[in-house]
Each structure stands twice: as C-alpha cells, then as structure tokens.
C-alpha cells in the first residue's frame, strides 16, 4: 500500500513518526501552514516557520524516503490578529518556491470580517500564482462555514477543481459534492472522521475527488490513520485499486495541478544512521 498524506503537520511530529510512517507505506506528504498552538507576535516568526516548511522538514523527511511538499498561508485563526496581517505581503515570496504546491490553510475559524478579507486575498494569490488552494472549514458551525466558504470560492473566480475543502463530515459532504471542488477528510482518534465512517462515505459518494488525510498535529492525532483507512476499505470490499486511488493517485492529481509536485527518486532515501553529528539520530540542516 503506497500512501500520500495530503495534509499532515510534521513540524509537530517526532522523527519516530517519520520512521513509523515510512514503515507503513507513507511515501509522500504535504504539510500545510497552520496555527502553532499559541499566538505568533510578528510576521518575522512566520518567515522562520515558512523557511522551515520549505527547508528543514523536506530534509528531515527525505532521510526516511518520504517526499515532503508544503502549502503556505496566513491561517484563519491568526488572520484576526492585526500583528499578523502583514504576513499577506510575505506570501508571494514563498508561493514561488518549488516545494510549495498550494495556498493553504485558508478559510474560516470564527467567520469574522477579518477572516473574510484574508480568505479572499489568498484565493486571489492562488489564482495569480497558478496554484491550488487548501481550504480549512471551521470546527464550529461547520455547515454554515462550508456554505460561506463555497460562496467565497465562487466569487474568487478560481477553478473549483483547484480547491479542496478539508475537514468535511457526513453533514457537510453533500454541500460540496456537486460543486466541482475536492472533498477533504481528516481521520482522527476521537474527533472529525474515523476509518469506519470514512468507508461509509466512500460507499455513498465514491472515490472521485476525495482526499483522505491524518491532519496529525500537536493534538491527539495519529499519522498512521491513513493506513488504517486503507485497511478498513479493503475489509469492506474495496479493491486495491480503490485504495490506491484514494491514498495515492487522488492527492497526486490534486497537487499535481501546481506543476511542482516531484515524486521522482523516492527509493533513494538517505541513511539516517550514518554521517550524523555528535551522536544525533538524524542529519542536521544548515551549518
């Protein structure tokens, strides 16, 4: 089983996670920029974070044979902080990076006017840079948030097939299914979606334009729940080809629209056990 996790926050994960993921069949990931758990106080902290997403994390992932790409954005929660709004002026510099395959996460947290403005501005950047967009749907009042997100996407002029609305569930999937946008589902231990629930949705709606991710971050989450979903699909009677479509070919198709997805040479992993410095378990980036 080959797995491409289209939404996972490896900044918050350990090197042990990379080892486990590689052993489970994860060959590629996309890491979206997100809120780190406490407020950032200036655009400079975002610049350091974005530099890590396009520098250190691809280097760290590559030592386990995992190809790492990123999406960058001012996330919805921090769009409400006036100290962070100048990040919008930083984004064009990063949206030109080879490893950046979409604008994201953008969308809504509390559905404020400030979030409206940041969402629309970043969809315009996606159009200007010819990139797909990863839209975060809010955790609260999700149905209204999805409807509002779809309205903003429609107003932006971006091609719907270049947009994924993530963190969908049984209540919201029907709102998105016939819009032409992609359907994103996050598999979690307690919240969002579970493998059995995901299987039922795939039975109902099919495997087209579906992205299944772990969205693993600093909260209670599991980077191997993509694998668990694939195994649940097989037990439910889906074919190996169905699993490959959902867990590999769909994310390749969606992010391939960026023209920057590079999955060549995935078997040329660096041996993390050699060349390390002063007994560290992993090669270091920088000097």
From TrEMBL:
<dbReference type="InterPro" id="IPR032466">
    <property type="entry name" value="Metal_Hydrolase"/>
</dbReference>
<keyword id="KW-0479">Metal-binding</keyword>
<dbReference type="GO" id="GO:0016788">
    <property type="term" value="F:hydrolase activity, acting on ester bonds"/>
</dbReference>
<comment type="similarity">
    <text>Belongs to the metallo-dependent hydrolases superfamily.</text>
</comment>
<dbReference type="InterPro" id="IPR001130">
    <property type="entry name" value="TatD-like"/>
</dbReference>
<dbReference type="GO" id="GO:0046872">
    <property type="term" value="F:metal ion binding"/>
</dbReference>
<dbReference type="InterPro" id="IPR012022">
    <property type="entry name" value="UCP005295"/>
</dbReference>
<keyword id="KW-0378">Hydrolase</keyword>
<dbReference type="Pfam" id="PF01026">
    <property type="entry name" value="TatD_DNase"/>
</dbReference>
<protein>
    <recommendedName>
        <fullName>TatD DNase family protein</fullName>
    </recommendedName>
</protein>
